[in-house]
Amino acid sequence: MRETVIVEAVRTPIGRKNGKLSTIRPDELLGKTLKGLMEKAGVSPTEVEDVVAGCVSQVSEQAPDIARTAALIANFPIEVPGVTIDRQCGSSQQAVHFASQAIASADMDVVVAAGVESMSRVPMLSNIQGTSYSTLLTDKYEMINQGVSAERIAEKWGMTREELDMFSLRSHEKAIHAQKTGVFEQEILPIDVTLEDGTVETVSVDEGPRLGTTIEKLSELKTVFKEDGMITAGNSSQISDGASAMLLMSREKAEQLGLKPRFRIVARSVVGSDPTIMLTGPIPATRKVLEKAGLHMEDIDVFEVNEAFAPVPLAWQKELDVDIEKLNIFGGAIALGHPLGASGARVMTTMMTALEKTGGRYGLQAICEGFGMANATIIERI
């Protein structure tokens, strides 16, 4: 198997729901991101053999096949194809996996893995359009809202509301500190948007982190999914807009083009898990990817576990006995936001930044996914 390397990665700022990025179509947003990726890498789009993009709600402006249309918008040659995939919240992480697999197998040499979601313009669940689950499914499994699943995880692992809110507060504090110290500047691709009054503004900062967040304010928020529960808007990921993209190659191709890769893909895993409690997949996915890599938890310098809801990374941390100071060191989706299809590659881009800033060698990323699935990836800084 050939070695797959990450040459470059970019992401847009993450916009709040109905924020500044809501003024731009998602296909155009992804197109800008693909164009920015290739310019930053200094590589011609003619070298790209495929664009694999994650997107969850593939309707309206996010359909059909936004990977292909965005590549055309980005002025990629018509010979460069594109495919759009849905692995729920891990869609663009799966895009990285598919790209890596194509390269490792020698099927391709250069692939772009990307993702996009404009949850302002194409609301979550809009692709369901009023349909219901098949009785052949519901007769076998209890199909519930992810928020209810998060409540059950919190109960199962004996978490308290204060514990969840404290984790959420720390997510904001870490993200705000990262913003103030310029941590995200190297990974964010500034985006020009036209506002309602016709003025053009360059957006270069994530809109999610809230400066005034306190434990008192978080504790006052009402629960959303269960009257006597623990899950609130404050300890859940934010509805967001954004895009991300990564340029992957075989090491041989990178050397041929005179490029210096930043990371290599060490191992990948994807698992299915209980479709009812749904969000615990990162636990077995982490164990599986470590086994595939021949590594142990103590070998990993930085962990990124998507903050879909605070109980998800907390249950993962408790179950695997991980040093919480290594987890989401620049904050996560609770503070930064969670544009579904873009989050996998966005999280990996931030993990790359974290490893470079700290001088770490290995990073491990895991994302829970709807219907009980999870991807995990280990990368190594070169």
Structure description:
The protein has 382 residues and is of the alpha+beta class. It has twelve helices and twelve strands. Strand 11 and strand 12 form a beta hairpin. Helix 1 packs across helix 2 and helix 3 crosses helix 12. The longest helix is centred in the middle third of the chain and has 20 residues. The chain is globular and about 60 Å long. The two termini are 18 Å apart. The model has no long low-confidence stretch (mean pLDDT 97).
Q: Layout of helices and strands, plus pairs?
A:
Blueprint: E1 4-11, E2 15-16, H1 26-41, E3 50-54, H2 66-73, E4 82-85, H3 91-104, E5 110-118, H4 135-138, H5 146-156, H6 161-180, E6 191-194, E7 200-203, H7 215-220, E8 240-250, H8 251-256, E9 263-272, H9 282-293, E10 302-305, H10 311-320, H11 333-336, H12 343-358, E11 362-369, E12 373-381
Parallel strand pairs: 3-4, 3-5, 10-11
Antiparallel strand pairs: 1-8, 1-9, 2-8, 5-8, 6-7, 9-12, 11-12
Calculate the terminal CA-CA distance, rounded to whole Å.
18 Å
**Overall residue-averaged pLDDT value:** 97
In helices, the fraction of residues equals 25-40%
Show unreliable segments: none
Which word captures the global form?
Answer: globular
Class computed from helices, strands and strand pairing:
alpha+beta
Helix and strand pattern: EEHEHEHEHHHEEHEHEHEHHHEE
Largest sheet properties:
10 strands, mixed
The number of helical segments is 12
Radius of gyration: 19 Å
Short characterization:
This is Thiolase family protein. The chain is of the alpha+beta class and 382 residues long.
